[in-house]
Write a structure and sequence with these properties.
Strand content: under 5%
Structural class: mainly alpha
Distance between the termini: 17 Å
Shape: elongated
Length: 135
């Protein structure tokens, strides 16, 4: 249980930091410029928090797999990337299929970002597990 909690805490922290840099600096205006009126004026924090908590739990369970310390970081990154691809792909491709004026560029960028983000978060969490459980 300790290793799962370390992995989960590290995954949540890494997700918030990395995604925060993406949303706050790198792609600061990208979503607003491309989604315009599709975005809510008042961001609802609770659904965002629930997504972060659920998604990172899924990454820990499906990619980090802290009960299997013998897994390579490449294996963990690959599994994290697949989880990110599936989750962000589901969201963006469903939006592209069902929402009027949903931009293809947002779909492509967001799926790529989700894939990279999930792989990175998974590796960060695995490194933390290895560091804090062997120290």
């Amino acid at each position: 249980m300790k290793t799962f909690l370390i992995a989960y805490g590290a995954a949540v922290s890494a997700f918030l930091i990395i995604d925060g840099i993406w949303l706050g600096l790198v792609a600061k205006n990208f979503y607003a410029d491309h989604l315009g009126d599709l975005l809510k004026k008042d961001f609802l924090m609770l659904p965002g928090v629930i997504f972060y908590l659920m998604f990172t739990a899924g990454l820990v369970f499906l990619a980090v797999r802290p009960s299997q310390p013998e897994l390579s970081l490449a294996n963990i990154a690959l599994h994290g990337a697949v989880v990110g691809l599936m989750a962000y792909g589901t969201y963006d491709l469903t939006n592209l299929a069902t929402l009027k004026d949903w931009p293809v560029l947002v779909t492509v960028v967001d799926i790529a970002w989700g894939t990279i983000l999930a792989a990175s978060v998974s590796v960060c969490a695995a490194v933390c597990v290895r560091y804090f459980t062997t120290a």
